[in-house]
Sequence to fold (705 residues):
Amino acid sequence: MTADPRRSPLGPVGAAEPSTAQPGVDSPRAQWLTGVGHVSYGGDYNPEQWPEEVWAQDMALMREAGVNLVSIGIFSWGLLEPSEGVYDFGWLDRLIDLLHAHGIRVDLATPTASPPAWFFHTYPHTRVVSRDGTVLGFGSRGMVNPSSPEYRRASVAIARELARRYGRHPALALWHVHNEYGAPVSEDYSAVSAAAFRAWLERRYGTLDALNAAWGTAFWGQRYGAWEHIDVPALAPSIVNPSQRLDFARFTNDALLECFVGERDAIRAESDVPITTNFMAGACPSVDLWRWAREVDIVSNDHYLTAADERGHVGLALAADLTRSVAGGRPWILMEHSTSAVNWQPRNVAKRPGEMARNSLAHLARGADAILFFQWRASRSGAEKFHSAMLPHAGTGSRTWREVCALGAELGRLDEVLGSRVRADVAILWDWESFWAQDLEWRPSEDLDHRERIDAFYDRLWRDGHTVDFARPDADLSRYRLVVAPASYLLTAASGANLARYVADGGTLLVSYFAGIVDENDAVHPGGFGAPLREALGVSVEEFLPLRAGERVHVALDRAAAGPAADHAGLELVGDVWADDLVLDSAAVVGTFVDGPAAGRPAVTRNTHGAGTGWYVSTRLDVDALAGLLEPVYRDAGIAPSGLPADVELVRRHGADADFAVVLNHGDQAVDLPLTGVDLLSGESAEGSVKVAAGAVRVVRTARP
Ligand code: GLA
Fold:
């Protein structure tokens, strides 16, 4: 029997069917993280880099630091399978038994992010081909084509061997499949991927007519008359069909997900221990975590500060909120962060005293029930020898080591926080498919930057003290008072209808420019720009009026329409990058362009639709100017800024019997906050006021309001 090329070898995952199902499963496996009874603490542990005499010292030091969970074997394929089908598990047997004897739980990885030298020697065509046709070499990691049948067979085989050997070991707490899918490379442009892409397209479209229609191939004479004529969107003389590239991004996401599912199912057949894979929420744009999160038992995430960003704690908060959101609100694992500097940024800034604990507890505040690092002991050799670690090169006399031990002790006082949930009144729409589409070439302005807009709106909400969820545009949004859409370039008609329903039912929606422009095929919506949002917003866009580099426009907020916002000092807001020629339908004008290409035309509009309101802003406002815009929007939503001191963050976790206010002071001044309760970290009780020293954190068990 010949295999049907359209059938995915690993089942139906590749059938690119979007789903709105909630991620995660409330199985006993998903409960492990909370059920273990304490905050998990530890990191990546790579003892194969050290003589075994060092392992005994590691055990003693892990106990001293309060480590109770380590991730092992992540890059060990070459040691575990020194030649194809020949296994050497001796060292891993000894290691797992040793950890078990010391009461340290094991997060066992499949080592498939870094295939061994023999693999590439035997199967040279599995190497990744980049978009310009370069074949990527060995001597690094992560350079394998995810569509390669040989890679899939070999990765499933090693996963199965590990699961058979260790799947019931009492030390085993968690499976860690692969490492950071999608990084450092995701797309592969080889002939193997071209064949897999064609099979994927046949599954998606069924007929060439459907594909030609979806891709608009009448344009530039690209019509296809045979499946085998379709190729990967490699570099071409001019830009490649954007619909083809968008589908290639979807195909790549599916190919990576099939790799995960293949390994996961091989493990599941042998072991009932929960399975995760470490995401890079907010940092890795090539995988759609709404889809991935549904396939894991527990969501885990890696996060590293961007050293150049002095407000890195806001980016951290965003990544943590996004992780919690893809986890459907369930507790999650911070699988990696750094004790101090990383080694892969242009300038690797060391963390200041106390910053590591503050970062860790900021993740915990937003739903993490496990705090882990890359890595336990700093490597002497290799590409990451200048990366910080829990046990740095400077050893146990170092500040880092003292802080690692102190953090372990602090986390040991937070058992009762486990499993409590974060609630948000505000959601930001987040859609990887829209980002993939918007990032393609020949958009109306190179200054259109979806991530910059999300970061700016998030930062404004952070400064105003609002805890934020991220949501898909087609999700049930009814629990949110305010939904913000800073970057919804690709928005299906169904999602537009979902947003209109949300507003009609009483919600407040705020949409930023360049939204609702194209459908799922990157084709402009019939009815013009913004057509799917017209019902909710009561406006449409007749023409884009992008601004020149550095050009600024002024927006006058209307006193009557903005209500109390008229008292706001920033009555005239400054924008740049963008303006629209807006056509009013039912919306009222709240802000008018004073100058620029849209002078005298609407810049900010407010539409009453059913029981709610839909707002639109057609220029780029910075974080300060967004305060002026958001004031009347908050009023519609029935929410207000928290009034916390600048650089102070307060996030609440809600437990079955108590609430916990996690207060993080990122500033250099002590603050007093009106809280009553017990600080679990210090044991101190507070009546009406809690002092939080500069740089400090409090976790206050508060009475239920
Ligand atoms: C990633 C990887 C780790 C390590 C760290 C360094 O997150 O998963 O293996 O390379 O980066 O920051």
